[in-house]
UniProtKB/TrEMBL annotation:
<dbReference type="Pfam" id="PF00459">
    <property type="entry name" value="Inositol_P"/>
</dbReference>
<dbReference type="InterPro" id="IPR051090">
    <property type="entry name" value="Inositol_monoP_superfamily"/>
</dbReference>
<keyword id="KW-0460">Magnesium</keyword>
<keyword id="KW-0479">Metal-binding</keyword>
<dbReference type="GO" id="GO:0000103">
    <property type="term" value="P:sulfate assimilation"/>
</dbReference>
<dbReference type="InterPro" id="IPR006239">
    <property type="entry name" value="DPNP"/>
</dbReference>
<dbReference type="InterPro" id="IPR020583">
    <property type="entry name" value="Inositol_monoP_metal-BS"/>
</dbReference>
<dbReference type="GO" id="GO:0046872">
    <property type="term" value="F:metal ion binding"/>
</dbReference>
<dbReference type="InterPro" id="IPR000760">
    <property type="entry name" value="Inositol_monophosphatase-like"/>
</dbReference>
<feature type="binding site">
    <location>
        <position position="145"/>
    </location>
    <ligand>
        <name>Mg(2+)</name>
    </ligand>
</feature>
<feature type="binding site">
    <location>
        <position position="71"/>
    </location>
    <ligand>
        <name>Mg(2+)</name>
    </ligand>
</feature>
<protein>
    <recommendedName>
        <fullName>3'(2'),5'-bisphosphate nucleotidase</fullName>
        <ecNumber>3.1.3.7</ecNumber>
    </recommendedName>
</protein>
<dbReference type="GO" id="GO:0008441">
    <property type="term" value="F:3'(2'),5'-bisphosphate nucleotidase activity"/>
</dbReference>
<feature type="binding site">
    <location>
        <position position="289"/>
    </location>
    <ligand>
        <name>Mg(2+)</name>
    </ligand>
</feature>
<comment type="similarity">
    <text>Belongs to the inositol monophosphatase superfamily.</text>
</comment>
<feature type="binding site">
    <location>
        <position position="146"/>
    </location>
    <ligand>
        <name>Mg(2+)</name>
    </ligand>
</feature>
<keyword id="KW-0378">Hydrolase</keyword>
């Protein structure tokens, strides 16, 4: 039975749109004391916190029972040392929640002019993302800024939201404010939203939520195939991708891009394959870094697995558990990439 997720899709697009508006305007005004370094040494900005607060508030108004797995938490902002940053985040989140965007998207979910939230409500909205995940029931994932390093460089980043029901991703929405609307026509500007609903296909919208264009991954020719990969060498192994690419006789250079914009580019026919292999032992991929990208690529006709060909498991908690690496590609290309990845892994084992 295919359930109807029309309302979830509408709310998710509205939330991502507002968050994209916020992150784009924050980028131009970011100052030094608006970025923190987290316990795992990764950066987080006022934009990440405020965008999570906005999305979480809108979700909670629309679906008060739903659980949320969000990347960020507000503990640093509740400390005395976080006061300045907290004040800025509350102001940014309220601005984004109350401003009137087009399309009347502020009418149904308890947001809009005069509906400012208190400091405590904004911090609680961020912390509502503390759910531990699991294999049953409804939960949303929020990655308020995926590719924070790309965001800080002024390059690609993505505002990412998904609805997971009983461990299956049912709705995925990804906002990419810096992604060209049409890669063949850069003069048309940047800013797109990607939407997928299980069984209903994938679409690209404008950043204002209009002009839905269906997406489907075209068959790849040897000449058009290349890999999409992370910018940060610490996040995925560039040398492994080089080896797989030479096993497949790929001659085009890799396309490097931060964030789930890679899944979006793949879904509209750029590249042909996204390959992400771990650089060392110990790091477990987070569900919010892959859930919306997975449904987007699958609904555009592609396949997403780990490096052993296993499906990504979104029911194990906040991480993908033992899933090792990610291969996303069109249906025709995926089996070939998987075979080459297995061969390259065997070579690595033989050398060890
Ligand atoms: N060691 C390691 N290995 C693999 N992945 C890691 C690692 N450390 C961090 N991360 C996660 O990478 C997310 C960003 O990866 P990306 O694919 O967006 O882009 S890039 O690697 O920065 O180019 C990034 O997401 P954000 O924190 O939302 O930016 C992290 O969740
Ligand atoms: Mg982060
Ligand atoms: Mg991320
Ligand atoms: Mg993030």
């Amino acid at each position: 039975m295919s359930l109807d997720y029309t309302t979830e899709q509408q709310v998710a697009v509205a939330a991502v749109r507002r968050a994209c508006h916020l992150t784009s305007s924050v980028f131009n005004k970011l100052v030094k004391n608006e970025t923190l370094v987290k316990g795992d040494k990764s950066p987080v900005t006022v934009g990440d916190f405020a965008a999570q607060a906005v999305i979480s508030t809108i979700l909670h108004n629309a679906f008060p029972q739903d659980l949320i797995v969000g990347e960020e938490d507000a503990s640093d902002l509740r400390a005395e040392s976080g006061k300045e940053m907290k004040d800025r985040i509350v102001a940014l989140a309220n601005e984004a929640l109350t401003e009137e965007l087009a399309l009347g998207d502020n009418t149904n979910w308890g947001i809009g002019p005069g509906q400012e939230k208190t400091d405590a409500e904004i911090l609680d909205a961020i912390d509502r993302g503390n759910h531990e995940g699991g294999s049953t029931g409804r939960m949303w994932t929020i990655d308020p800024i995926d590719g924070t390093k790309g965001f800080l460089r002024g390059e690609q980043y993505a505002v990412c939201l998904s609805l997971i029901v009983d461990a299956q991703v049912q709705v995925g929405v990804i906002g990419c404010p810096n992604l060209p609307i049409d890669p063949a026509h850069p003069e048309n500007g940047t800013g797109c939203i990607f939407v997928a609903v299980r069984g209903k296909g994938a679409q690209q919208l404008t950043i204002s939520g209009a002009n839905p264009t269906p997406l489907s991954i075209p068959p790849t020719t040897p000449e058009s195939l290349n890999f999409l990969e992370s910018v940060e060498a610490a996040h995925s192994s560039h040398s492994f991708n080089d080896r797989v690419s030479s096993l497949l006789n790929i001659t085009r250079p890799h396309t490097r891009m931060d964030s789930q914009a890679k899944y979006c580019a793949l879904a509209r026919g750029e590249g042909g394959a996204y390959l992400r292999m771990p650089t060392g032992v110990g790091y477990k991929e987070k569900i919010w870094d892959h859930a919306p990208g997975q449904i987007l690529v699958e609904e555009a006709g592609g396949i997403v697995t780990d490096s052993r060909g296993e499906p990504l498991n979104f029911g194990l908690g906040r991480t993908l558990g033992e899933n090792y690496g990610v291969i996303a590609a069109g249906k025709d290309v995926h089996p070939r990439v998987l075979a080459a990845v297995k061969q390259a892994l065997n070579e690595t084992k033989a050398k060890a």
